[in-house]
Amino acid sequence: MDHIVHLANSYLLRRGIARLPLETETLFALCEQEGYELLSYAEADAVIDRLGLGAHKQRDAFLYAHQGLRLLFYEDRLSYAKKRFAIAHELGHIALMHLDSGVISKSDAHRPSSRQEQEADVFAYQLLAPICILRKAGAHTVRAVQELTLCDREQAEHVLGLLSEPCQKSASDRALTEAFRPFLAAAKRSRCRGLCACLCLLEVLLTTLFLCLALSHCTGATKDPRAAPLRTVTELSPISRAPQSGGLFYWSQGGEVYHAARDCPALSRTGSVSSGSKEEAEAAGKGRPCQICGD
After folding, report:
1. How far apart are CA 288 and CA 295, in angstroms?
2. 170 with 130: CB under 8 angstroms?
3. What's the CA gap between 90 and 120, in Å, rounded?
4. Structure confidence by residue, pLDDT tens digits, 182-234
5. Residues 150-180: pLDDT tens digits?
6. Is residue 99 very low, low, confident or very high in pLDDT (cuts 50, 70, 90)?
7. Which residues of 259-268 are buried (b: 16+ CB within 10 A; e: fewer)?
């Protein structure tokens, strides 16, 4: 199908198309330049019935030519990408002179395509997504193809498959690339701006992360001289490990232990503290010594 790609390139050059994507308005204008009037199925329903063409409405689009009347009918309820491709496909039939008189319509996916249908598909893909231009633009992913051409994912995957095939650049490829030079330069600048924006965002994120880590470290390392230093239980005021005041022990009303030191940190949280001998503490239900101040 290399000759179809060459014809599609020549068609783009002849019609002065030198940028992507091709919008539906551009495709409509191209069909009109070929002498065809475009009508959606909805707005041409009466015309289609009068011409006895109702059976062809099951297709995405079809052509009709008879005695100087040239019409391109299409399904307007298709997605934007599928509608573009259907019209580009019919435009391929027109440009490749597949129809002189009668009706020609795109075969659906469940029927074998004729040679002309295959050629019209190749023409449509090259029209909407010129392989030589996408290669030059560095479109190496499905998303990149979609952004440049407005193809849907299925169409972009097909185009990416074509991009992966080895090929030699033809004279028409070189001529089309030259015509698209301003577009390619603008696309390159856009990619550079996008890359710069990503790098700037990354720099901001890394800087913010560094400042947060530095602030966290400084906050943990700096102590307020006006605040009392935090101390563990063992760093509090010295606790006597021997009974004080002639063998007195201390206990709280709600606790289960007795204390050998009145200044035990465990008693600092208790409002009411009782004191007495060890026997009295045990009689009060305090059956074991405190682990902090000991027995």
Report:
1. 9
2. no
3. 7
4. 999 998 887 666 556 667 777 778 888 888 888 887 776 655 555 555 555 44
5. 999 999 999 999 999 988 889 999 999 999 9
6. confident
7. bbbbebbbbe
Helix/strand/coil (H/E/C) assignment for every residue in the chain:
CHHHHHHHHHHHHHCCCCCCCCCHHHHHHHHHHCCCEEEECCCCHHHHHHCCCHHHHHCCEEEEEECCEEEEEECCCCCHHHHHHHHHHHHHHHHCCCCCCEEEECCCCCCCCCHHHHHHHHHHHHHHCCHHHHHHHCCCCHHHHHHHHCCCHHHHHHHHHHHCCCCCCCHHHHHHHHHCHHHHHHHHHHHHHHHHHHHHHHHHHHHHHHHHHHHHHHHHHCCCCCCCCCCCHHHCCCCCCCCECCCEEEEECCCCEEECCCCCHHHHHCCCEEEECHHHHHHCCCCEECCCCCC
Distances (CA, A) of 131 to 117, 162, 168, 223, 250: 20, 7, 12, 66, 92
pLDDT tens digits, 232-280: 544 444 454 544 445 788 888 778 888 888 888 777 777 788 888 888 8
- What pLDDT score does 110 carry? 40
Q: What type of residue sits at position 4?
A: I
Distance between CA 69 and CA 235 in Å, rounded? 102
In this structure, the chain runs to a length of 295
Give the pTM: 0.65
Contact 225, 257 (CB under 8 A): no
Give the pair of three-digit tokens for residue 222: 């700096």
Burial class (CB in 10 A: 0-12, 13-18, 19+), 199: exposed
